[in-house]
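For reproducibility, we list the full input for the zinc ion complex.
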Amino acid sequence: MSLNVIMLGAPGAGKGTQADRFARAKGIPRISTGDILRDAVQRGTPLGLQAKAIMARGELVSDDIVIGIVRERLGRDDAQNGFVLDGFPRTVPQAAALDTIMQGRDPLIVVDIVVPADEIARRIGSRLVCCACGTNVDDRNPAKAGACGKCGGRLVQRADDNAETVKERLRVYERQTKPLVEYYQVRPTFKSINGAQTPDQVAVDLNAAIATVGGGQA
Ligand SMILES: [Zn+2]
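The corresponding predicted structure, in tokenized form, follows.
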């Protein structure tokens, strides 16, 4: 059975890290919409050219184009034995479109990495950036905080990571994602993972959860 995995999770839940780890471990592609959009633009595919024109006008790329680019990507050879989708779908209409794309293929396994809002706010609030060289520091170890490991520059909180911005990002995420979780959670292949643990433990739980729905005969 193909491991056709979707990962859901708020910004700061560690979704990207887990998607990357899982995809590498299983030898399947991690497909992030940002990456494939950039790739389509670079390769100058018809959809990529459309997207490029829209972004050049400073507008958001429409669902139709994003869905088209995802369809194209999931149709490639390396995605036939499975994939990890990261950042798509974001909305119920996108999820419905994905179901159409997936017709005739193994069922989607949906993993929701759940981290309480206050923990997410704490995590994001502790991300620092060097004001001299721009290096991001995602280290919560206070002994290392204060100076950049690369250039010794001063570390400051990222401008878009202040408490209000984080709260607003989480509100937007909640508003968008709640219907998406409701859309998927009725399925036997939906799994909720406790993301408020070490990345290693989250990875263990994730593997176990996916094995119960994708690896076995369930
Ligand atoms: Zn620096």
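The mean pLDDT is 86. The radius of gyration is 19 Å. Both points were considered when choosing residues for closer inspection.
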